[in-house]
Amino acid sequence: MEINKTPYLSIIIPVYKAEKFLEECLNSIKKQTFSNYEILLIDDGSPDKCPEICDESAKNDNRIRVFHQINQGVSAARNKGIQEAWGEWIAFIDPDDWIDEQAFSILSGALSDQKETDVLIFDYCLQNKRNAFSHLKTYPEIFYSENKEKNRDIQLQIISQSLFNWPTNGGGPCNKWFRKEIIKNIFFPVGMKRCQDLVFCLYVYEAAEKILYIQKPLYYYRLNEKSASHSYSAETEEKYNRIFFEFSNFIKLNHPHDELYWDAFHLQNLDFVIDIFQLDKTNPANQKSEKEKINDFIDFMKNSQIVQAVRLIKPKYLSSKRKVLFFLIKIKCHVLIYSYYRLKALLER
Description:
It is a single chain. The chain is α/β, with parallel strands linked by helices. The chain is built from 13 helices and ten strands. The chain has helices spanning about 20-30, 50-60, 75-85, 105-115, 150-160, 180-185, 195-205, 235-255, 260-280, 290-300, 305-310, 320-330, 335-349; strands at about 10-15, 35-45, 65-70, 90, 100, 120-125, 135, 145, 175-180, 210-220. Strand 6 (about 120-125) and strand 7 (about 135) form a beta hairpin. Helix 8 (about 235-255) packs antiparallel against helix 9 (about 260-280).
């Protein structure tokens, strides 16, 4: 059968250490009643059986194209997919997740009704710690946006979920279809180990004009405790410094005089303080002494972005719980903050 070089949809799957789930992911795509698509498997130097699974899958289905590269990270893998995609639309699926059997029919049908859409958003089914799945709504209500004001709200929520308290930050790429024309020159930041998805989506919404959101749970997201957003790393603080830079750089380039963007940025920096405790300072995998952890945290709090955030955060955006934390940070009760999160971590084990 001749290869279709003008598919409606290009599905990009970055592949790394996913041999346990990859075939399940691919099967969920092959079960779709909508078939005008291609699959781009980007093997990011996976050391397991994934390269063989990719090659074998391509032999049996001419809609599958495989690209092997040395390990460069998920951003580089997705960027390779964007560069190689032939489709009018681009979707991202992670190899340990899967999609509803009717997903493509539902989504292509939604686009047939709103043909000028640039980004189509839908919902996740999120796995919890009991292995059950629940519908996670991306936004409180469905919408079709034709104005930049809505894009602005979406961007602000990506920068800080505390601003509007919507169900999610909305910054992941896997519950979206992107018109290729919009993202062909937008790429995931390579070398960034956390929040690269959010940075990518910020620039996408800057370029997009029309956004459609349907409140249907079509993407099944598998909880991975070993992912970068859930696991301990000795480089945690370095990762956050990169996030500080990317977020602030986006605002400086696109909305330098919009106060609400900076409000969101400062709120996100407070969220990072909480993450530092949960993923680093009170993480059982951190083998440093209690004294070393506290001293490390005190040093982190001297970061210029954190100092600025503490000075400029507007308490009206904070929940009651966050206001208490904010107050303790302002009066530098670092040991008390550490003790709280240490106890919280022990109780949650």
